Amino acid sequence: MQMKIKVALAQFNIQFADPDKNQQRVAELTSIAAKAGADVIVFPEMWNIGYALNQLDRLADDGGRTTTKLFYRLARQYQISIVGGSVAVKEGGHFYNRTLIVDPLGQVVGKYDKVHLFRLMNEHRYLTAGNQENYFRLAGVPSASFICYDLRFPEWIRTVARHGSAVLYFPAEWPAVRIPQWTTMLKARAIENQAFVVAVNRVGDDPDNHYNGHSLAIDPLGNVIADAGENDGITYAELDLTQLATVRGAIPVFVDRRPDLYK
Questions:
Q1: Residues near 46 by Cβ (< 8 Å), separated by ≥ 6?
Q2: Are the C-beta atoms of 137 and 164 separated by less than 8 Å?
Q3: Are the CB atoms for 120 and 93 separated by under 8 Å?
Q4: What would the pLDDT profile of 167-180 be if each residue is shown by its tens digit?
Q5: What are the pLDDT digits (tens) for 84-121?
Q6: Does the residue 76 lie in any domain?
Q7: Taking CA 179 as the corner, what is the angle to CA 178 and CA 180, rounded to the nearest 5 degrees?
Q8: What are the C-alpha distances in Å from 243 to residues 52, 183, 206, 230, 256?
Q9: How many domains does the chain have?
Q10: Which residues pair with 138 in a beta bridge?
Q11: Cross-referenced SUPFAM superfamilies, in alphabetical order (predicted)?
Q12: Residues involved in catalysis
């Protein structure tokens, strides 16, 4: 396992219902991150169209093919791993909020459809929930990914993290009004799972919400390594994975679990 990885938190203003402009921005940010020596770049949730859910039939990526081709090209061109935030995908007569994880060869090494749909933003009316875990190796590191509202379900995070994930990724569109809870819960997920957390939010506005970023990288003790603030652009974090042995050795929570009692 690689002992240190440099992660690029690509926090940007998603253009509502405009996939072409958003794809251009993703390509631009990937180029910048690669030139800065990042091993992994992470994007926000629903970056292709924002929350234009009432336009999914027209705008959703059919089978995820456009996004897959874009990430294939960018990963190979820049030799960078991509945690693809998430995009609106149309497949089999359903719509999904889907993450794609791509390695530097352009191969999809992870795919995840959001499991917990957020009723406050009407996801349950338009989207189909996923039902599969997503754990993978990226930059040689055991990892897992979730999407936004999943953060509020620690039992789901633990279910996936039990496989030994060193890094937990959380792309999101988390409105500014609830950012204090975002910060607190991300720290808690890092501490309780003894893992690094990398969470990328957006900035800007859509017709219903204001977003103020604060993408975060957090170490296994809950310390903030990087906070993107409200800036549009990339913030970098170096994850020193040698911390994991010390933290997990001192307090072996995964060994001491009692899943027979958890109902």
A1: 14, 85, 86, 87, 88, 97, 173
A2: no
A3: no
A4: 999 999 999 999 99
A5: 999 999 999 999 999 999 999 999 999 999 999 999 99
A6: yes
A7: 95
A8: 41, 21, 39, 28, 20
A9: 1
A10: 141
A11: Carbon-nitrogen hydrolase (SSF56317)
A12: 45, 114, 148
Instruction: Encode pLDDT of 45-89 as tens digits.
Output: 999 999 999 999 999 999 999 999 999 999 999 999 999 999 999
Long-range contacts of range 105-109, CB-CB < 8 Å, 24 or more positions apart? Answer: 105/75, 105/76, 106/71, 106/72, 106/73, 106/75, 106/76, 108/68, 108/71, 109/136, 109/137, 109/138
Give Cβ neighbours of residue 110 (< 8 Å, ≥ 6 apart).
99, 100, 101, 134, 135, 136, 138, 143, 145
Dig out the tokens for 141 from the structure. 């590191």
The rounded percent of the chain whose pLDDT value lies above 70 is: 100
Residue 231 included in any domain: yes
Residue 7 makes CB contacts below 8 A (sequence gap 6+) with 38, 39, 40, 41, 42, 198, 217, 236, 237, 238, 239
For residue 188, tell me if it sits in a domain: yes
Q: Using an 8 Å Cβ cutoff, are 136 and 81 in contact?
A: no
CATH number of residue 146's parent domain:
3.60.110.10
Neighbouring CB atoms inside 10 A of 115's CB total 19
- Angle made by CA atoms 169, 97, 190, in degrees to the nearest 5: 20
Q: Are 2 and 239 in contact (CB under 8 A)?
A: no
Question: Is residue 211 in some structural domain?
Answer: yes
